[in-house]
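Attaching the record inline, Q. Sequence:
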Amino acid sequence: MAAVLVHIDLEGNRPHRASLVALAAGRQLASSWGATLYAAVIAKDASDVDAAALGKAGADKIMVATTSVAIAPLWAAVGGAW
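Structure, as predicted:
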């Protein structure tokens, strides 16, 4: 089965607005392919993620990778390259 994976940046425990836009685009793509849409989140703790907001935005499944190091938004890491 096909899958579409969308990286989600958080502001506090809520998904960043840009991530919700990316999730909406992912939803269109996943629907056209008959694929599952995954929201991929990096957080300190899985309870830090507002799963309801991601589900409302179209995610079929949510994957949370936990870490003990400081989390920087993806844009902070790669934005300069763009």
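The chain is about 35% helix and 30% strand. The two ends are 32 Å apart (CA to CA).

More tomorrow.
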